[in-house]
Design a protein that fits this description.
- The chain has about 375 residues and is of the alpha/beta class.
- The protein has two domains: about 35-125, Immunoglobulin-like; about 130-355, Rossmann fold.
- About 25% of the residues lie in helices and about 25% in strands.
- The protein has helices spanning about 140-145, 175-185, 200-210, 225-240, 255-275, 295-310, 335-350, 350-355; strands at about 35-40, 45-50, 55-65, 70-80, 85-90, 95-100, 105-115, 115-125, 130-140, 160, 190, 245, 280-285, 315-320.
- Strands 1, 2, 3, 4, 5, 6, 7, 8, 9, 10, 11, 12, 13 and 14 form a 14-stranded mixed sheet that branches.
- Helix 3 crosses helix 5 and helix 5 (about 255-275) runs parallel beside helix 6 (about 295-310).
- The chain is elongated.
């Protein structure tokens, strides 16, 4: 199997959105440059929705104009519900506020006033705020993706795939995000944190810092798990998280069934511990070559057992049914048709009632 081993980089994903607005006397300007800017690093622009279909965003910005008070109205663009005018606090040239919004995608309209006179009314189309669904990924090369096989024609205005680096691929995650966005009318973010060449046992042992033999991963640095850990500890407190999507199996053919079950449970429990969320859900794909060969049968049985016995583990996509040369270019990795089918298989498991079974982690800072 062909794998790529990438250095983990925490690179934020920045998206630019544009709409045309006819400028009239009573309409806001759609230009955010110069007078008003959003501080993206201190704002919280994408948050996981709660069980009441709401999420708390944080808006921090500044202006070069002189003003004595500021307000914001959130214009719904994707689902959601337009807010009333809401007051922002003022500290020098800076304004800020924390607000609960219904799940959806929004453009903020900022109004600045000098005493009772409006000095600026600006619709910030390049600074969207999003309340939706956030997922992270654990897995091997099928989860990470391999060039040139990736599906890039998805709505990256409202679907964010946070990759290791700009040189990495989005695999099929963008397509899955697009499907979920269209179905539920909420933005989708996926932390693409699969590591090619990894096994379930290596993820479990590296989570605890236990020794194992590998030509790819340095167990003393807790690879591969520490790549994933660094990402979620950096991002999840700011965004929240619905669930972790798991794709393992193809590399587990030489791992015993007992160790597959044991160490999968280890990294799941450890993830819940570091995120302080004992009920965090994992969606475990049925992932193996699906050929029913002797070396694969124990992997299939391990996945059957884990889906029945591990707590807060939900059945994910049936990827073992995506088999053959029409879907896997080398017998293991997905070609373009395989990527499309993998996205479809993941999409169909996201029944509306599924969300009520998964308690999300909400933004904590």
């Amino acid at each position: 199997m062909f794998y790529r081993f990438l250095t983990f980089l925490a690179i934020p994903l920045c998206l630019s959105l544009f709409i045309s607005c006819q400028k009239e006397e009573n309409n806001p300007s759609s230009n955010q440059q110069g007078n008003i800017q959003i501080d993206a690093s201190n704002s919280r622009t994408f948050v996981q929705r709660d069980l009441n279909n709401q999420g708390k965003i944080v808006l921090v910005g500044q202006s070069s104009l002189s003003f004595t008070s500021a307000q914001v109205k959130f214009k719904n663009v994707l689902g959601g519900k337009e807010s009333d005018w809401l007051n922002l606090s003022k500290e020098g040239a800076q304004f800020k506020g924390e607000f609960s919004l219904q799940a959806g995608g929004y453009y903020p309209e900022i109004k600045l006033m000098q005493d009772s006179k409006t000095v600026s009314d600006t619709l910030l189309t390049q600074s969207p705020f999003k309340v939706g669904e956030v997922f992270a990924v654990i897995g091997h090369s099928l989860a990470e993706g391999q060039p040139p096989y990736e599906l890039t024609d998805y709505d990256n205005k409202w679907c964010e795939i946070v990759k290791y680096s700009e040189n990495n691929v989005v695999a099929f995650w963008g397509r899955l995000a697009d499907k979920l966005k269209n179905r539920y009318q909420v933005p989708i973010r996926i932390y693409s944190t699969g590591i090619g060449g990894s096994t379930s046992e290596q993820w479990g042992k590296s989570a605890l810092g236990l020794a194992f033999s590998s030509t790819l991963f340095d167990w003393q640095k807790r690879y591969p798990y520490s790549f994933f850990e660094n990402r979620i500890l950096s991002e999840v407190p700011k965004s929240g998280l619905r669930a972790v999507l798991v794709i393992h199996g193809e590399n587990d053919a030489t791992t015993s069934m007992d160790n597959i079950i044991k160490y999968t449970g280890v990294y799941m429990d450890y993830t819940r511990e570091i995120l302080q969320s004992k009920n965090l859900s994992f969606m475990l794909a049925r992932s193996n070559r699906g050929l029913n060969k002797t070396e694969d049968l124990h992997v299939q049985e391990a996945q059957n057992i884990m889906l029945k016995t591990l707590p807060n583990v939900i059945e994910g996509a049936n990827l073992q049914s995506v088999v053959g040369a029409g879907f896997r270019w080398d017998g293991t990795h997905f070609n373009f048709a395989g990527l499309e089918e993998a996205a479809r298989k993941w999409d169909i498991v996201f029944d509306p009632k599924l969300f009520s079974q998964m308690t999300p982690i909400l933004r904590s800072r």
